[in-house]
Amino acid sequence: MSLANADNTDEGKKGPSLIIQLAVFAVLTFLAIGGGWFAGAYLKSGTTAQPETAKVIVESGTPEAPAETDSHEGETGSAEDDKPAPRLVALDPVTTNLSAPADIWVRMELSMVFAAPPDAGLVRQIHQDILAYMRTVTLQQVQGASGFQHLKTDLEERAHIRSNGLARELVIRTLLFE
């Protein structure tokens, strides 16, 4: 008897009416549309600003004489700024074998960003320093993304120290192991 009464009470309770369900669905839909519009407007407002680009002078090869680097100063428009534009100098390729395993060879093509026109002797010293450093590196040290980042950081620090802060950034254009 009591089970029959319990079944009758469950059948009588059907839940909210169809109109209330449609109203809740409409409210949730408008909230989702409003949230999407707000998020889109927020994200779009952040992309309008363009990053400021720095003017870099690109020099190919090792500068041979200071007179050659002086000829590029007229092109920079140095009247705009008092400080000289950074210079991108392509270093000669570095080819050497690694410390371990010794039968693995590495070839690197590098460029260096200098704060001011570098001396040719300084560029050669940095090249020789990088060559000497690469002979002490093992293959395990440069494996993976973190190994590559550590190698780049080490080479940048050595160039920065060697140039007394004139070298700003190292660009690894090619890194090949054989």
TrEMBL record:
Major subcellular site: membrane
**Ranges of biased composition (kind: Basic and acidic residues):** 69-85
Q: Does the keyword Membrane apply?
A: yes
Signal sequence residues? none
Q: Where is this region: Disordered?
A: 61-86
Name the UniProt key words of this record, in alphabetical order: Cell inner membrane, Cell membrane, Cell projection, Chemotaxis, Cilium, Flagellar rotation, Flagellum, Membrane, Transmembrane, Transmembrane helix
Entry-linked InterPro entries: FliL
* Keyword Acyltransferase recorded: no
**What are the recorded Gene Ontology BP terms?**
bacterial-type flagellum-dependent cell motility; chemotaxis
UniProt topology in membrane: Single-pass membrane protein
Q: Name one GO cellular component term.
A: bacterial-type flagellum basal body
**TM helices/strands, residue ranges:** 20-43
Report the locations given in the UniProt record. Answer: Cell inner membrane; Cell membrane
Q: Which family does it belong to?
A: Belongs to the FliL family.
Sum up the protein's function in the record's words. Controls the rotational direction of flagella during chemotaxis.
Q: What is the protein's name according to its record?
A: Flagellar protein FliL
Organism of origin is Nitratireductor mangrovi
Task: Tell me the lineage of the source organism.
Answer: Bacteria, Pseudomonadati, Pseudomonadota, Alphaproteobacteria, Hyphomicrobiales
